[in-house]
Design goal:
334 residues, alpha/beta, Rossmann fold, CBS-domain, 2 domains, five-stranded parallel β-sheet
Length: 334
């Protein structure tokens, strides 16, 4: 083994060793956080849930970056929130904070001078302020309505200076607040989609009812119709299928392009167009609820054994729409 090879292997070993040490340090800090949570968490959640206004999140430096992320997470999960920069607050942005709001102020040391004007403003106007800090006896802690204490476990940084373990704990604590508020409010996938309409996430959370063909667009026939009628409807609607309903309007079968190909084999009926649709249809077809997610529709189509390309959406056994795999592709799911 060359000296260069040995040197490279040594560096790799040290890199991995330091990486594991960093992760272990941050995990240890999170364990301390988990075991130190107390009744102040519930009190903070009560304030956040019951506020008549907004949640204002503020912090300076790295705490400010986390405050922005925290506000964004709140806003996307049902809690109206935004970030106020503490320095800008001292130059007019205090006017963005109303008496009905709740403030979350983040400072690991609790002694960020830039937060002082916000603390005074909150005190003067009796605005609840939740402090996130490692030091309840700090200026921030003493002037807060309540304190959510961060672990005082040092940083993963080898110098013990760069915010690492402390910022991880702060981010996790913000996620705890957001998730608990979601649980308290019964925040649903539908609520989530309304706040995330764009991109892949918005598509995944789309409902069948959002893209299905309904009304006159549905290819439907009564069970006493003939196959010549089915061919006309399939050609007109261009969805590659026709749903068969009984006298009560309930879906009892489906005829697809695949069924037609199978019935056109030499040993099948020589006079297909005069067959009744009830003789050709596939009985008890796979169906889906219009309230189901499109991703569920795709899974149903793909997991039928041989795969299908259409699903009728039904309510009380009656068809209210039909979805094609191409609709799922257009929505960005399939």
């Amino acid at each position: 083994m060359s000296n260069l090879q040995a040197s490279n292997d040594s560096f790799k070993y040290d890199d991995l060793k330091h990486a594991v040490e960093t992760i272990d340090q941050e995990i240890e800090t999170l364990e301390i956080l988990k075991n130190s949570l107390d009744s102040n968490l519930s009190k903070a959640l009560d304030l956040l849930q019951n506020t008549k206004g907004r949640v204002i999140v503020t912090g300076m430096g790295k705490s400010g970056h986390i405050a922005r992320k925290m506000a964004a997470t709140f806003a996307s999960t049902g809690t109206v929130a935004f970030f106020v920069h503490p320095a800008e607050a001292s130059h007019g942005d205090l006017g963005m904070i109303s008496d009905d709001d709740v403030i979350i102020a983040i400072s690991y040391s609790g002694e960020s001078k830039e937060l002082s004007d916000i603390l005074v403003y909150a005190k003067r106007r009796n605005i609840p302020l939740i402090a996130i800090t490692r030091n309840p006896e700090s200026a921030l802690g003493k002037n807060a309505s309540l304190v959510l204490k961060l672990p005082d476990n040092g940083e993963a940084c080898p110098l013990g200076l760069a915010p690492t373990s402390s910022t991880t704990a702060t981010i996790v604590l913000g996620d705890v607040l957001a998730v608990d508020l979601m649980e308290r409010r019964g925040f649903s996938a539908t609520d989530f989609r309304q706040r995330h309409p764009g991109g892949k996430l918005g598509a995944i959370l789309c409902k069948v009812s959002d893209v299905m063909h309904k009304g006159d667009e549905m290819p439907l026939l009564k069970d006493d119709a003939l196959m010549r009628d089915a061919l006309l409807v399939m050609s007109e609607k261009m969805l590659g299928c026709v749903g068969i309903v009984n006298e009560s309007g309930e879906l009892i079968g489906i005829i697809t392009d695949g069924d037609l190909r199978r019935w056109m084999l030499p040993d099948m009926s020589p006079n297909l167009i005069m067959e009744k649709v009830s003789s050709v249809m596939t009985k008890n077809p796979k169906v889906i609820s219009p309230d189901a997610l499109i991703v569920d529709a795709v899974n149903t189509m793909n997991n039928t054994g041989h795969g299908i390309t259409n699903l009728f959406a039904v309510q009380d056994k009656k068809p209210v729409g039909v979805i094609h795999i191409h609709d799922c592709l257009k929505a960005g799911v399939a």
